[in-house]
Amino acid sequence: MDSPFGLLAELTYRCPLACAYCSNPVNLAGYSGELTTDEWRRVLAEARDLGVLQCHLSGGEPLLRRDLVDLVAHAHGLGLYTNLVTSAFGLSRPRAEQLRAAGLDHVQISVQADEPAVSDRIAGTPSFRRKIEAMGVVKELGWPLTVNVVLHRHNIDRVAGVLGLAEEVGADRVELANTQYYGWAWRNRDALLPSRAQLAAAEVVVRAARERLRDRMDVIYVLPDYYSRYPKPCMGGWASRQLTVTPNGDVLPCPAAQSLPLPRASVREESLERIWAGSPVMSAFRGTDWMPEPCRSCARRELDFGGCRCQAFLLTGDAARTDPVCHLSPDHHLVARAVEAANAASPGGDRPLIPRPHRVRRVER
Ligand code: SF4
Ligand code: FES
Fold first, then answer.
1. Element (H, E) at 241
2. Where is the signal peptide (predicted)?
3. How far is the CA of 357 from the centre of ligand 1 (A)?
4. Summary mean pLDDT of the chain
5. What distance in angstroms lies between residue 223's CA and the mean position of ligand 1's atoms?
6. pLDDT at 70 exceeding the cut of 60
7. 147 lines ligand 1 (CB under 6 A)
8. Which ligand 2 atom sits nearest the alpha carbon of residue 180?
């Protein structure tokens, strides 16, 4: 068994935004009892002892945690590389300066589109202007900046403008991530899935931008797996290199795994080490022994690990099936049908998006 390399610390599910593609659980109301500062401190120390090197502080909106500066300082003191994954709504200059002094290494800011009205509509909150201001502060304070844009039917046609925006704010890296269908995105899948023509047009723009910006900005393009022949090697394999701790202390191999019918493991009851090594949730799909055909005898089984367990569960009701994205899967028709519908729908998206609810509106400044 390998040590985990990365910890995704989901500090809170509270968020001032209401994106319809949010990967947080749809039963947000069922979550309460966020870990305390001391509990997170212990989790970070246990993660470090387990071999974790990178800590992604995420949510929801991690800036809503009053103890964020404290937690960053603690992680930094443990020698962890810290990355703040944020909407930047609430990243004021004083807060940013405190985070800088605490040792935060990297900032990733999401934006929903290049145009203020479109971005604010998708975010469900007027936030574009503050995001751009925050990006300026991040660069001024000398952090490396990643601009993250989740792509879908309602913004993928604007990818040239998005790249221009990333260039304008001086991003070191832009991550154009086609939506992964979990949480709220799964609920909104048919309204979010782009057409093949939209994807083809976006790819031409991205390829040209990569060439043009080669020396200035990394352009990462996360492919939409519904349109791929083979599935993604999700999380680098189940409980192989990554682990997630949710706001209430549940430990999972990936953030979406809370929708799976697996026994819970919590840092409130056991150490991270015991959970990583021996809990049923971690061992459920570790390695290749659990695999059914066609994965079991497939030459790619060590490359993609049979795809994504959460996607298999959402699409088929059985997390142990081959990811239906794979064209060899007996359930591939489930993906093919969704793709067919996306291509038959009128351009621009004709279905309404269901936004995830705001859990809080006030953001700590
Ligand atoms: Fe991957 Fe399984 Fe498809 Fe082979 S059959 S390519 S291992 S998902
Ligand atoms: Fe959970 Fe892929 S998102 S295994």
1. none
2. none
3. 36
4. 94
5. 17
6. yes
7. no
8. 3
Q: Residue 267 and residue 250: Cα distance in Å, rounded?
A: 6
Atom of ligand 1 nearest to the CA of 325: 8
Contact 90, 365 (CB under 8 A): yes
The strand ranges marked E within 152-189 are 173-178
Q: Which of 40-44, 65-69, 318-322, 350-354 has the lowest mean pLDDT?
A: 350-354
Partners of 85 in the beta sheet? 108
Q: How confident is the model at residue 353 (pLDDT cuts 50, 70, 90)?
A: confident
Instruction: Work out the average pLDDT over 340-355.
Output: 80
Q: Give me the percent of the chain exceeding a pLDDT of 70.
A: 97
Answer yes or no: are the C-beta atoms of 34 and 23 closer than 8 Å. no
Taking the alpha carbons at both ends of the chain, their separation in whole angstroms is 43
ipTM of predicted assembly, 2 dp: 0.94
**Ligand 2 contact via 185 beta carbon (within 6 Å):** no
* pLDDT score of 130 more than 90: yes
Give me ligand 2 centre to Cα 298, in Å: 20
The sheet carrying 173-178 orders its strands as 218-222, 173-178, 145-151, 106-110, 81-86, 54-58, 6-10, 242-245, 251-252
Q: How far, in Å, is the centroid of ligand 2 from the Cα of 159?
A: 26
pLDDT score of 212:
94
d(Cα 229, Cα 234) in Å, to the nearest integer? 15
Give me ligand 1 centre to Cα 305, in Å: 7
Query: Is the CB of residue 304 below 6 angstroms from any atom belonging to ligand 1?
Result: yes
Taking the CA of residue 232 as reference, the ligand 2 atom at the shortest distance is 2
Q: Where is the binding site for [4Fe-4S] cluster, in residues?
A: 15, 19, 22
pLDDT at residue 362 greater than cutoff 50: no
CA-to-CA dists, residue 263 to 7, 44, 75, 251, 259, angstroms? 20, 23, 29, 11, 11
Q: In whole angstroms, give the CA distance from residue 85 to residue 224.
A: 21
Contacts of 304 (CB under 8 A, 6+ apart): 230, 231, 232, 233, 323, 326
